[in-house]
Amino acid sequence: MKKIFATAIVAAAVASTPAMAATLVNEPISLSPTSPGVWTGTFGNTVTTADINAAKFYTDTYQFVVPTMGKVGASAVTLTFDGTLTFTEILLNGTALKINQVLDGNNNVVGYSAISPLGGLSSATNPQKLSIKGQLTGDAGTYTGNVRFESAVPEPGTWALMILGFGIVGYAMRRRPSVRFAQAI
User: Fold this and answer.
1) pTM
2) CATH number of the structural domain spanning residue 116
3) How far apart are CA 28 and CA 124, in angstroms?
């Protein structure tokens, strides 16, 4: 009986230990429309020594829903931080985004930007996942970010105007007066 009790205590201790270097941030990214076919949202987190592994690496994962079906043509992530963090990889649905450093006038890194590869992402597989991977160089570090998505599929209003335009062109072509030539006798 003592062995079973000891095994249960060890199992409970292992199960209650937090996973290191992988955090699912509980707050989803809320996307808001900023112009037709464009949605933006903000996110961020404070990384502490509890969130990292022995090499001081961390991974934060966010979930969100793109409010359109089909393909999203362009997506961008912009990150700013307090200087004690580095970003080693940004993944959008498992696809690595190209990371570019944002420099100030003195060539100091003040942020990062990342753009999705050509072809965008499929929004039919909601929810989307954004993973931020990096390294903590101090005791704690904070980052904030923005995501921006542009739809590759025209809005319904755009389709309606396009179809109306084709209809007007077709009507104008059909209503064109026929040309008659006068014959000399």
Assistant:
1) 0.63
2) 2.60.120
3) 18
Q: Sign of the C-alpha dihedral, residues 40, 41, 46, 51?
A: negative
CB atoms within 10 A of CB 155: 12
- Domain ranges, residue 58: 16-174
| Residue with token string 């201790």 | 13
Contact in structure between 134 and 45 (CB atoms under 8 Å):
no
- Asked whether residue 11 is domain-assigned, the answer is no
Buried b / exposed e across 17-42, counting CB within 10 Å, b at 16+?
A: eeeebebeeeeebebeeeeebebbbe
Number of helical (H) and strand (E) elements in the chain, helices listed first:
2, 12
* The total number of structural domains that make up the chain: 1
- pLDDT tens digit string along 51-65? 787 788 888 888 888
Q: Beta-strand (E) ranges in the chain?
A: 23-24, 32-35, 38-48, 57-64, 71-81, 85-92, 95-96, 98-103, 109-115, 121-122, 128-136, 140-151
DSSP one-letter code for 180: -
